[in-house]
Amino acid sequence: xAVASLGLMVVAVLLGAAALVAAAGKFxxxxxxxxxxxxxxxxxxxxxxxxxxxxxxxxxxxxxFLYGKASxxxxxxxxxxxxxxxxxxxxxxGDKHNEYDFEFLGNVTGEPYLVQTNLYIDGVGNREQRxxxxxxxxxxxxxxxxxxxxxxxxFMVDDTPIRVYENATSRRGHHRHxxxxxxxxxxxSTPAFPGPQPMALYSxxxxxxxxxxxxxxxxxxxxxxxxxATFREVRVDGCAWxxxxxxxxxxxxxxCTGSSWGxxxxxxxxxxxxxxxxxxxxxxxxxxxAHHLVYDYCVDTDRFPVQPPECAGR
Length: 314
Ligand SMILES: *[C@@H]1O[C@H](CO)[C@@H](O)[C@H](O)[C@H]1NC(C)=O
Ligand SMILES: *[C@@H]1O[C@H](CO)[C@@H](O)[C@H](O)[C@H]1NC(C)=O
Ligand SMILES: *[C@@H]1O[C@H](CO)[C@@H](O)[C@H](O)[C@H]1NC(C)=O
Prior knowledge:
By secondary structure, the protein is of the alpha+beta class. The protein has six helices and 18 strands. Belongs to the glycosyl hydrolase 16 family. Catalyzes xyloglucan endohydrolysis (XEH) and/or endotransglycosylation (XET). Cleaves and religates xyloglucan polymers, an essential constituent of the primary cell wall, and thereby participates in cell wall construction of growing tissues.
C-alpha cells in the first residue's frame, strides 16, 4: 500500500479510515504522548523517545484497531544503552487484555541488543522469546512489525518473520499441518488464541536495569543520559475501531472481522494468503530461529515443567 499524501489522509480520516498512514513528519496524525510529554521530542522529520534521570517517555495511537499490521521504522539507543528498554507493542488494555510486544533490551557499548517478544492473551503473558539480530539496530533504521488477524500473530523484522503464534483451530483445517494433532494430543487443553479485542499501538522507553541487561547485573550509567530511541515512521494498516464504540461493540467486531472488504477498502491483512506464512516466509522463520533464537519459553522446563499447550510439537 502506498504512503498516502496528507490530503488523502485527511479525507481518509474523515471517512473513518481503514488505513492510517504516517509519513515522516506526520506522527501527530497517528500517535500522541502517553506520559511525560516533554520526553517525546520532534527532531525534523524524526520522532524521539527520551530517557533521562527524571523520566522515560512514550506514545499511544489515537485510534484502536482490530486486525491489521502495525510497524515502526526505528533506530535504537546508540552506544551505552545498558539498563534501557525500548518497547513497541499493541495492547487492548484492561484486566483481560491481549498484548503483542517487542522489547529491545539495551547493552553496554559494542555488545548485542536482544529483542524480546511476548504475547498476552486474556491478561496472561509469560510467553517470552528472545533473539539477537543479524545487524546493528543502533546504526540505522529497521522495520519492526506485528501482523495480526484471526489466524495468526506474526512478529517481523525487516519483513523476516521471527515469530508466529498460530490459531490452532484454523490451522487444523490446513493440510500442511494436518499431522500436528498427533503431538498436540499429548496436552489436554487447546491453545489459547487472542480474541477480537481492538488494540492500540504503544511505544515507550524506560529504565529497567533491575532485569534487562545481563540479567540485571549491568546498571544504567546515567552519565551517558539522555538515551534516545528514534522513529522515522510509525504506521498502522488496520481496521480502525469507531471512536464512539465500546471495546466489545458487536457491530464493530463484525465489521472488522467479517469480510476482506470494509467500507474503506480492501482489508488485505485478512485475505486468505495472510492466514499463514508463505513458503518463503516459513523458510525465513526457520533461518531466523536457527541462527538467532537465544531464549524460548517453550523449552524452559525450569519455568514450565508442563509444556504450555501452544508449544506442543516444537
Ligand atoms: C480461530 O480460527 C477459527 C477457525 O478459522 C475461527 O472460527 C476462530 O474464530 C478463530 N479464533 C479467534 C479467537 O479468532
Ligand atoms: C549483552 O551482552 C552480553 C555479552 O555479549 C550478552 O551475553 C547478553 O545476552 C547481551 N544482552 C543482554 C540483554 O543482556
Ligand atoms: C457511532 O457514531 C456513528 C456515526 O455517527 C453512528 O452511526 C453509530 O451508531 C454510533 N455508535 C455508537 C455505539 O454510539
